[in-house]
Amino acid sequence: MPKFSTKVKTKKGAENEYLPRAAEITKIRDLNPEVKHYTLKFKDGKALEYKPGQFVQVSLFGVGEAPISITSTFERGDDLEIAVRKAGSLTNAIHELKEGEELFIRGPYGNSFPWQEYKGKDILFVAGGIGLLPLRSVMNAIFHHRKDYGKIWVLYGSKCPTDCVYSDELVSWSKIEDVSVLQTVDSPASGWKGNVGVVTTLFSKIEFDPDKTIAYLCGPPIMIKFTNLTLEEKKMRPDDIITTMEMHMKCGIGKCGHCLIGHKYCCTDGPVFTYAQLKTLGAEE
Ligand SMILES: Cc1cc2nc3c(=O)[nH]c(=O)nc-3n(C[C@H](O)[C@H](O)[C@H](O)COP(=O)(O)OP(=O)(O)OC[C@H]3O[C@@H](n4cnc5c(N)ncnc54)[C@H](O)[C@@H]3O)c2cc1C
Ligand code: FES
Binning pLDDT at 50, 70 and 90, where does residue 167 land? Predict the structure, then answer.
Protein backbone atom coordinates (compact mmCIF):
# COMPACT_ATOMS: atom_id res chain seq x y z
CA MET A 1 0.00 0.00 0.00
CA PRO A 2 1.42 3.44 -0.87
CA LYS A 3 1.55 5.82 2.05
CA PHE A 4 -0.55 8.94 1.67
CA SER A 5 0.16 12.12 3.54
CA THR A 6 -2.75 14.31 4.58
CA LYS A 7 -0.33 17.22 4.97
CA VAL A 8 -0.36 19.80 2.19
CA LYS A 9 3.13 21.19 1.63
CA THR A 10 3.19 24.89 0.87
CA LYS A 11 5.76 26.72 -1.22
CA LYS A 12 7.62 27.57 1.98
CA GLY A 13 7.49 23.94 3.16
CA ALA A 14 5.16 24.84 6.02
CA GLU A 15 2.46 22.41 7.10
CA ASN A 16 -1.16 22.24 5.94
CA GLU A 17 -2.39 25.72 5.12
CA TYR A 18 -5.99 24.52 5.35
CA LEU A 19 -5.67 23.54 8.99
CA PRO A 20 -7.48 26.01 11.25
CA ARG A 21 -6.33 26.83 14.79
CA ALA A 22 -8.74 27.05 17.71
CA ALA A 23 -9.10 30.53 19.19
CA GLU A 24 -10.93 31.46 22.38
CA ILE A 25 -13.21 34.48 22.33
CA THR A 26 -11.92 36.54 25.24
CA LYS A 27 -14.17 39.57 24.71
CA ILE A 28 -17.27 40.45 22.70
CA ARG A 29 -18.66 43.93 22.20
CA ASP A 30 -21.68 45.04 20.21
CA LEU A 31 -20.76 47.62 17.57
CA ASN A 32 -24.36 47.92 16.38
CA PRO A 33 -27.39 45.56 16.34
CA GLU A 34 -25.91 43.64 13.36
CA VAL A 35 -22.16 43.75 14.05
CA LYS A 36 -20.16 42.28 16.94
CA HIS A 37 -16.46 42.78 17.69
CA TYR A 38 -14.45 39.77 18.93
CA THR A 39 -11.10 39.69 20.71
CA LEU A 40 -9.41 36.31 20.24
CA LYS A 41 -6.56 34.35 21.82
CA PHE A 42 -5.17 31.21 20.20
CA LYS A 43 -5.54 28.14 22.37
CA ASP A 44 -2.04 26.91 21.44
CA GLY A 45 -0.67 30.08 23.05
CA LYS A 46 1.04 31.31 19.89
CA ALA A 47 0.21 34.85 18.78
CA LEU A 48 -0.53 35.56 15.13
CA GLU A 49 1.67 37.99 13.25
CA TYR A 50 -0.30 39.97 10.67
CA LYS A 51 -0.33 43.22 8.73
CA PRO A 52 -3.03 45.91 8.33
CA GLY A 53 -5.43 44.93 5.54
CA GLN A 54 -4.97 41.17 5.80
CA PHE A 55 -7.86 38.80 6.46
CA VAL A 56 -8.38 35.43 8.14
CA GLN A 57 -10.63 32.51 7.23
CA VAL A 58 -12.97 32.02 10.20
CA SER A 59 -14.83 28.74 10.63
CA LEU A 60 -17.14 26.78 12.87
CA PHE A 61 -17.11 23.02 12.49
CA GLY A 62 -20.23 21.77 10.68
CA VAL A 63 -21.38 25.29 9.80
CA GLY A 64 -18.91 26.84 7.38
CA GLU A 65 -16.01 29.16 6.78
CA ALA A 66 -15.78 32.79 5.61
CA PRO A 67 -13.14 35.45 5.01
CA ILE A 68 -13.17 38.15 7.70
CA SER A 69 -10.86 41.17 7.84
CA ILE A 70 -8.50 41.66 10.71
CA THR A 71 -9.53 44.90 12.41
CA SER A 72 -6.78 45.02 15.05
CA THR A 73 -3.25 46.35 14.70
CA PHE A 74 -0.31 44.01 15.38
CA GLU A 75 2.01 47.02 15.25
CA ARG A 76 0.67 48.31 18.59
CA GLY A 77 0.49 44.87 20.24
CA ASP A 78 -3.25 44.21 19.89
CA ASP A 79 -4.62 40.69 20.32
CA LEU A 80 -6.29 39.43 17.15
CA GLU A 81 -9.61 41.25 16.68
CA ILE A 82 -12.32 40.73 14.09
CA ALA A 83 -15.81 42.18 13.70
CA VAL A 84 -18.61 40.18 12.16
CA ARG A 85 -21.86 41.35 10.56
CA LYS A 86 -24.78 38.90 10.55
CA ALA A 87 -25.15 37.95 6.88
CA GLY A 88 -25.99 34.23 6.74
CA SER A 89 -25.45 30.82 8.27
CA LEU A 90 -21.87 31.13 9.58
CA THR A 91 -22.03 34.74 10.69
CA ASN A 92 -25.36 34.12 12.49
CA ALA A 93 -23.79 31.14 14.28
CA ILE A 94 -20.77 33.26 15.29
CA HIS A 95 -23.17 35.81 16.78
CA GLU A 96 -24.57 33.04 19.02
CA LEU A 97 -21.14 32.38 20.58
CA LYS A 98 -20.34 33.65 24.06
CA GLU A 99 -17.10 34.79 25.67
CA GLY A 100 -14.98 31.71 26.55
CA GLU A 101 -16.26 29.73 23.56
CA GLU A 102 -14.10 29.03 20.53
CA LEU A 103 -13.99 29.50 16.80
CA PHE A 104 -11.36 28.46 14.27
CA ILE A 105 -8.96 30.59 12.31
CA ARG A 106 -6.57 30.06 9.42
CA GLY A 107 -4.42 32.75 7.92
CA PRO A 108 -3.52 35.61 7.88
CA TYR A 109 -3.99 35.88 4.13
CA GLY A 110 -3.75 38.47 1.41
CA ASN A 111 -1.52 41.43 0.85
CA SER A 112 -1.74 44.47 3.11
CA PHE A 113 -2.24 48.22 3.10
CA PRO A 114 0.99 50.04 2.27
CA TRP A 115 1.49 52.66 4.99
CA GLN A 116 5.09 52.87 6.24
CA GLU A 117 6.25 54.20 2.85
CA TYR A 118 3.84 57.14 3.15
CA LYS A 119 5.54 58.83 6.10
CA GLY A 120 5.34 62.61 5.68
CA LYS A 121 2.14 62.43 3.59
CA ASP A 122 -1.31 63.70 4.53
CA ILE A 123 -3.77 60.84 4.95
CA LEU A 124 -7.44 60.64 4.04
CA PHE A 125 -9.52 57.71 5.29
CA VAL A 126 -12.95 57.31 3.71
CA ALA A 127 -15.23 54.57 5.03
CA GLY A 128 -18.82 53.57 4.46
CA GLY A 129 -20.74 51.32 6.91
CA ILE A 130 -18.72 48.23 7.86
CA GLY A 131 -15.95 49.42 5.54
CA LEU A 132 -14.52 50.87 8.75
CA LEU A 133 -13.73 47.30 9.98
CA PRO A 134 -10.72 46.64 7.70
CA LEU A 135 -9.67 50.31 7.62
CA ARG A 136 -9.38 50.41 11.43
CA SER A 137 -6.27 48.19 11.24
CA VAL A 138 -4.29 50.67 9.12
CA MET A 139 -5.82 53.69 10.87
CA ASN A 140 -4.55 52.56 14.27
CA ALA A 141 -1.16 51.70 12.76
CA ILE A 142 -0.84 55.25 11.43
CA PHE A 143 -2.24 56.83 14.63
CA HIS A 144 0.31 54.76 16.58
CA HIS A 145 3.02 56.60 14.59
CA ARG A 146 1.10 59.87 14.45
CA LYS A 147 4.12 62.18 14.32
CA ASP A 148 5.40 60.52 11.14
CA TYR A 149 2.42 61.73 9.09
CA GLY A 150 0.91 65.08 8.10
CA LYS A 151 -2.72 66.05 8.49
CA ILE A 152 -5.24 63.21 8.77
CA TRP A 153 -8.94 63.19 7.88
CA VAL A 154 -11.43 60.45 8.65
CA LEU A 155 -14.66 60.67 6.62
CA TYR A 156 -17.25 58.16 7.73
CA GLY A 157 -20.74 57.57 6.37
CA SER A 158 -23.40 55.11 7.45
CA LYS A 159 -27.02 54.57 6.44
CA CYS A 160 -28.37 55.78 9.78
CA PRO A 161 -26.91 56.59 13.21
CA THR A 162 -27.58 53.05 14.53
CA ASP A 163 -25.63 51.52 11.61
CA CYS A 164 -22.46 53.30 12.68
CA VAL A 165 -19.62 51.11 14.02
CA TYR A 166 -16.84 52.09 16.46
CA SER A 167 -18.74 55.28 17.50
CA ASP A 168 -16.63 55.54 20.67
CA GLU A 169 -13.39 55.26 18.70
CA LEU A 170 -14.49 57.90 16.18
CA VAL A 171 -14.73 60.26 19.16
CA SER A 172 -11.30 59.28 20.50
CA TRP A 173 -9.67 59.56 17.05
CA SER A 174 -11.09 63.09 16.73
CA LYS A 175 -9.11 64.02 19.87
CA ILE A 176 -5.75 63.03 18.35
CA GLU A 177 -3.69 66.05 17.31
CA ASP A 178 -4.45 67.25 13.78
CA VAL A 179 -6.97 64.49 13.07
CA SER A 180 -10.36 65.64 11.75
CA VAL A 181 -13.21 63.17 11.95
CA LEU A 182 -16.30 64.00 9.91
CA GLN A 183 -19.34 61.79 10.07
CA THR A 184 -22.54 61.70 8.03
CA VAL A 185 -25.66 59.54 7.72
CA ASP A 186 -27.93 58.96 4.73
CA SER A 187 -31.11 58.99 6.88
CA PRO A 188 -31.05 60.86 10.18
CA ALA A 189 -32.97 59.54 13.18
CA SER A 190 -34.71 62.03 15.45
CA GLY A 191 -32.12 63.76 17.61
CA TRP A 192 -29.29 63.42 15.06
CA LYS A 193 -27.53 66.79 14.86
CA GLY A 194 -24.72 65.82 12.51
CA ASN A 195 -24.26 65.85 8.73
CA VAL A 196 -26.82 64.26 6.44
CA GLY A 197 -25.94 62.89 2.99
CA VAL A 198 -23.71 60.29 1.38
CA VAL A 199 -20.06 60.22 2.41
CA THR A 200 -18.87 62.10 -0.70
CA THR A 201 -20.83 65.19 0.48
CA LEU A 202 -18.18 65.53 3.21
CA PHE A 203 -15.55 66.45 0.61
CA SER A 204 -17.09 69.94 0.39
CA LYS A 205 -16.08 70.44 4.05
CA ILE A 206 -12.38 69.66 3.75
CA GLU A 207 -9.44 70.95 1.75
CA PHE A 208 -6.52 68.71 0.94
CA ASP A 209 -3.51 68.85 -1.35
CA PRO A 210 -3.92 66.07 -3.95
CA ASP A 211 -0.14 66.00 -4.53
CA LYS A 212 0.70 65.09 -0.94
CA THR A 213 -2.30 63.04 0.14
CA ILE A 214 -2.84 59.26 0.23
CA ALA A 215 -6.46 58.06 0.39
CA TYR A 216 -7.61 54.75 1.90
CA LEU A 217 -11.18 53.74 1.05
CA CYS A 218 -13.46 50.92 2.08
CA GLY A 219 -17.20 50.49 1.82
CA PRO A 220 -19.95 49.25 -0.48
CA PRO A 221 -19.11 49.18 -4.22
CA ILE A 222 -21.32 52.19 -5.02
CA MET A 223 -19.56 54.27 -2.38
CA ILE A 224 -16.12 53.21 -3.66
CA LYS A 225 -17.11 54.10 -7.22
CA PHE A 226 -18.28 57.64 -6.39
CA THR A 227 -15.45 58.29 -3.94
CA ASN A 228 -12.90 57.30 -6.59
CA LEU A 229 -14.57 59.62 -9.12
CA THR A 230 -14.65 62.50 -6.62
CA LEU A 231 -10.98 62.01 -5.72
CA GLU A 232 -10.03 61.96 -9.41
CA GLU A 233 -11.99 65.19 -9.98
CA LYS A 234 -9.94 66.63 -7.11
CA LYS A 235 -6.81 65.65 -9.08
CA MET A 236 -5.64 62.77 -6.93
CA ARG A 237 -3.48 60.21 -8.74
CA PRO A 238 -5.14 56.76 -9.05
CA ASP A 239 -1.90 55.27 -7.62
CA ASP A 240 -2.47 57.22 -4.40
CA ILE A 241 -6.00 55.88 -3.86
CA ILE A 242 -5.99 52.54 -2.05
CA THR A 243 -8.96 50.31 -1.44
CA THR A 244 -9.74 46.80 -0.23
CA MET A 245 -12.08 44.53 -2.19
CA GLU A 246 -14.59 41.95 -0.95
CA MET A 247 -15.01 39.16 -3.48
CA HIS A 248 -16.63 35.79 -2.83
CA MET A 249 -13.85 33.48 -1.64
CA LYS A 250 -13.39 29.82 -0.80
CA CYS A 251 -9.79 28.73 -0.24
CA GLY A 252 -8.24 32.12 0.51
CA ILE A 253 -4.86 30.92 -0.76
CA GLY A 254 -4.97 31.18 -4.55
CA LYS A 255 -5.99 27.62 -5.37
CA CYS A 256 -9.74 27.53 -6.16
CA GLY A 257 -10.23 30.50 -8.52
CA HIS A 258 -13.40 31.76 -6.79
CA CYS A 259 -12.11 35.28 -6.25
CA LEU A 260 -10.89 36.37 -9.68
CA ILE A 261 -10.73 40.12 -10.39
CA GLY A 262 -9.69 40.39 -14.03
CA HIS A 263 -6.60 38.16 -14.14
CA LYS A 264 -5.76 38.57 -10.44
CA TYR A 265 -6.82 36.58 -7.39
CA CYS A 266 -8.37 38.84 -4.78
CA CYS A 267 -7.20 36.49 -2.00
CA THR A 268 -3.49 36.50 -2.82
CA ASP A 269 -2.89 39.52 -5.12
CA GLY A 270 -5.34 41.54 -2.99
CA PRO A 271 -7.60 42.25 -1.21
CA VAL A 272 -5.81 45.63 -1.22
CA PHE A 273 -5.52 47.31 -4.65
CA THR A 274 -4.86 50.85 -5.83
CA TYR A 275 -7.48 52.54 -7.99
CA ALA A 276 -4.86 52.47 -10.79
CA GLN A 277 -4.63 48.67 -10.48
CA LEU A 278 -8.43 48.29 -10.44
CA LYS A 279 -8.62 50.28 -13.68
CA THR A 280 -6.17 47.97 -15.40
CA LEU A 281 -8.19 44.98 -14.12
CA GLY A 282 -11.45 46.50 -15.41
CA ALA A 283 -12.80 46.45 -11.84
CA GLU A 284 -13.02 50.16 -11.08
CA GLU A 285 -16.85 50.17 -11.08
C1 LIG B 1 -11.58 39.78 2.06
C2 LIG B 1 -12.93 39.80 2.76
C3 LIG B 1 -13.03 40.39 3.99
C4 LIG B 1 -14.26 40.40 4.67
N5 LIG B 1 -14.31 40.98 5.88
C6 LIG B 1 -15.45 40.93 6.60
C7 LIG B 1 -15.48 41.46 7.93
O8 LIG B 1 -14.50 41.98 8.46
N9 LIG B 1 -16.64 41.36 8.61
C10 LIG B 1 -17.77 40.77 8.06
O11 LIG B 1 -18.78 40.71 8.75
N12 LIG B 1 -17.76 40.30 6.79
C13 LIG B 1 -16.63 40.34 6.06
N14 LIG B 1 -16.61 39.82 4.79
C15 LIG B 1 -17.84 39.26 4.22
C16 LIG B 1 -18.07 37.86 4.80
O17 LIG B 1 -17.05 36.99 4.34
C18 LIG B 1 -19.44 37.32 4.36
O19 LIG B 1 -20.45 38.11 4.94
C20 LIG B 1 -19.60 35.88 4.82
O21 LIG B 1 -18.92 35.06 3.87
C22 LIG B 1 -21.02 35.44 4.92
O23 LIG B 1 -20.98 34.08 5.33
P24 LIG B 1 -22.29 33.37 5.92
O25 LIG B 1 -22.06 31.89 5.92
O26 LIG B 1 -22.67 33.99 7.21
O27 LIG B 1 -23.37 33.78 4.87
P28 LIG B 1 -23.92 32.90 3.63
O29 LIG B 1 -25.05 32.09 4.20
O30 LIG B 1 -22.80 32.19 2.94
O31 LIG B 1 -24.38 34.08 2.69
C32 LIG B 1 -25.29 35.07 3.12
C33 LIG B 1 -25.34 36.15 2.06
O34 LIG B 1 -24.09 36.85 2.00
C35 LIG B 1 -23.60 36.84 0.67
N36 LIG B 1 -22.14 36.78 0.71
C37 LIG B 1 -21.37 35.74 1.05
N38 LIG B 1 -20.06 36.05 0.93
C39 LIG B 1 -20.02 37.33 0.51
C40 LIG B 1 -18.99 38.23 0.18
N41 LIG B 1 -17.71 37.88 0.23
N42 LIG B 1 -19.31 39.47 -0.22
C43 LIG B 1 -20.61 39.83 -0.31
N44 LIG B 1 -21.62 39.03 -0.02
C45 LIG B 1 -21.34 37.80 0.38
C46 LIG B 1 -24.19 35.59 0.05
O47 LIG B 1 -24.24 35.70 -1.36
C48 LIG B 1 -25.58 35.59 0.67
O49 LIG B 1 -26.44 36.48 -0.02
C50 LIG B 1 -15.41 39.82 4.07
C51 LIG B 1 -15.30 39.23 2.82
C52 LIG B 1 -14.07 39.23 2.16
C53 LIG B 1 -13.96 38.58 0.82
S1 FES C 1 -10.40 32.21 -2.81
FE2 FES C 1 -9.58 30.49 -3.84
S3 FES C 1 -8.31 31.40 -5.33
FE4 FES C 1 -8.95 33.07 -4.12
Answer: very high
Class assignment of domain 21-109? Answer: mainly beta
CA of 247 to the centre of ligand 2 (A): 9
- DSSP string for residues in 84-142: EE--SHHHHHHHH--TT-EEEEEEEES-----GGGTTSEEEEEEEGGGHHHHHHHHHHH
Distance (Å) from CA 50 to ligand 2 centroid: 19
Helix, strand and coil content of the chain, in percent to the nearest 5, comes to 25, 30, 45
116-244 CATH fold: Rossmann fold (3.40.50)
- 239-268 residue pLDDT tens: 999 999 988 899 999 999 999 998 999 999
Q: Whose CA is nearest to atom 3 of ligand 2?
A: 254
CA of 229 to the centre of ligand 1 (A): 26
Domain ranges, ordered by start, for the chain = 21-109, 116-244
Residue 188 confidence (pLDDT): 86
DSSP H or E segment with residue 223: helix 221-233
Residues with CB under 6 A from ligand 1: 55, 64, 66-69, 83-85, 87-91, 133, 246-249, 271
